[in-house]
Amino acid sequence: MTFEEVVVWRTDDGREVYRRVLTDRESREAMGAKRMRLVCTEAGTLFWLRRGRLSTPTVDGGTQLRQSGTYNDIAISRDGLLIAMLGSEGRIEVWDL
Predict the structure, then answer these.
(1) Matching CATH number, 5-96, of 1.10.8, 1.20.144, 3.30.70, 2.20.25
(2) pTM above 0.70?
């Protein structure tokens, strides 16, 4: 199994909204590495947890979000209004989206 790129498309019309080829390192990490997760809200906002750092990926590379420390995992609430972050020190932070 290989992971070569990230592709996101709209489920209602099948239109592609984001595509980026992964680097060799990202491909290896995507095959089960800890502190790696890509989540999407109902509104279509992407959050990418990579090596403990959270960003919002975009076609031009994305934006690193301001944060204190690193994170082990993230989760989005069912209504898409909150994001919970599990910090590497065991701290849980909840942010409004």
Answers:
(1) 2.20.25
(2) no
pLDDT digits (tens, 9 = 90+) for 66-88: 777 888 888 888 777 888 888 88
Q: Are 78 and 71 in contact (CB under 8 A)?
A: no
Give the three-class secondary structure for 58. coil
* Of 57, 22, 12, residue with least CA distance to 39: 57
SS3 33: coil
First to last CA, the chain: 34
* Distance, CA of 95 to CA of 9 (rounded, Å): 25
What distance in Å separates the CA atoms of residue 12 and residue 18, rounded to the nearest whole number? 15
Tell me what the mean pLDDT of segment 23-34 comes to: 66
Give Rg (Cα) of the chain: 14
Q: Where along the chain do its domains lie?
A: 5-96
Alpha-carbon span 75 to 58, nearest angstrom: 20
